[in-house]
Amino acid sequence: MPYRAPISDYRFLFDHVVDLQQVTDTPRFSEATPDVVEAILTEAGKMSEEVLAPLQRSGDLHPARLENGVVRTSPGFAEGYRAIADGGWVAIAADPDHGGMGLPMAVTTAVNEMMSAACLSLQLNPLMTQGQIEALEHHASDALKALYLPKLITGEWSGTMNLTEPQAGSDVGALRTKAEPNGDGSYSITGQKIYISWGDNDFTGNICHLVLARLPGAAEGTKGISLFLVPKYLPDDSGAPGQANDLRVVSLEHKMGLHGSPTAVMEYSGATGWLIGPEHGGMKCMFTMMNNARLGVGGQGIGVAEGAYQHALAYATERRQGKTLVEGAGGAIVDHADVRRMLATMKAEIFAARAIALSCGVAIDMARATGAADWAARAALLTPITKAFGTDTGIAVSDMGVQVHGGMGFIEETGAAQFSRDVRVTAIYEGTNGIQSMDLVARKMMDGGEAAFGLLDEIEEAAEAAKARLPDLAMPVWNAAETLRESVEWLVTQGDMNARFAGAVPFLRAFARVLGGYYHLRAAVADPESARARLARFYILRLLPEHQSLLVHARAGAEDLYALTPGDLAA
Hints:
CATH superfamily of the domain at 7-150: Acyl-CoA dehydrogenase/oxidase, N-terminal domain
Shape: globular
Structural class: alpha+beta
CATH topology of the domain at 7-150: Butyryl-Coa Dehydrogenase, subunit A, domain 1
Radius of gyration: 24 Å
Number of helices: 20
Helix content: 55-70%
CATH architecture of the domain at 7-150: Orthogonal Bundle
Number of strands: 11
Largest sheet: 7 strands, mixed
């Protein structure tokens, strides 16, 4: 089934749920008028539908491959990437001083989600470059900005991030890659990195790697890490790609999905690089890129969920099987109660996850436009929730999509399984969802829960205002927010960090459940007689109650968990 960009959903969310207007009312984003946003969504949707979506199966069936040290990309990917770059979609949020559009992150999030739904393997390339652009804007020297940003922004060059090493997975502080000063302001980078998304390609003039490495005498752990920009080709005096740097792709990983995206093992053998940010300040600089990428990866999960849902819905409305109990129905499986339940769940979850992601984008935009600490705290709070819930939604919805197809979902030719295989990694890369949850209950609660309480205040005020019109929906949302408030209060007074960690994943999911109820309620209030209001009723009455059992788990502590010994688990 052809992909259809859900432009009307973004428009509704911007207008009635996440309040994009507060962003566009600021001087920084005043040029992002409704007409401009509409044009951006329309053109990006058209490109996603007509150019990227036809590449989805091509990337799966004809993976990227390594030939004599050169990465050969999937058929059509070079043309698809050129459409992304020529449309300006790589640099939609980048600084106009270097050629970017300077549009809000909320709008960028919608565009990235559409591209992810159409062809996740290819969209991962510009997502990495977007993160690198932001890191360089914040931390690079003026000379490096002038040389690299214009070419990254136009898409002439692409970017990667190099964190992981064979002996250091999520424990970045265990890395061994070395950086030695060359005496001329550059550094010699030596080491090996793994899991490097789009570590090489055959359609951009240069690939610019951000590499974490350790300077001589640096402290152990993350405090001794610095960040370096290491290009595949060293720019010559004119800024054009010149001599090949001493780095190479050793191999490409054979993966369960995302076949069109080359995941490289990279070897640096004294490659020339330049310091980004201060010495030993690499983690702070890299987190600028990673936080951008975490919002983007959450959007990837939501995009794949949208694609899987559209695929399943088309099948369910055409496939006839068995007799339904719906009078006057046409006999398609969409009229079977359980299939209808799955489709309603898929659509309701996508709406909730999308609203959370766009709200995170709005918070980032407001923090940038106003400098207000409360907006920055809101953005920080929503980032791990967006990443984890967005990708969990992608996994769950694509899995349900296979189930809706029945036996045909297990047959590769239908395309249902590809969504499930491709999206699975999103819960792992850019910080596993377990790490996102630990971040939420630890670092994001260092303010004593102030940001969380502020958001809960907002939810309860909205629910109070909706009680007169929609009491059967407003009261469950208010009650859920109050229950979550009690758990946040428990969390911030819990001195045993392992007790927090033991319930971190269910706590994050419960938080997302309550946020989903809030955003669905806002949709119902905006249009009480619409399909969106009927979907809100489904979510609030059927899915929102899950927050209660999740919060019981979240507050259970770690004692019973560790009462199970490794021997018990092996028995």
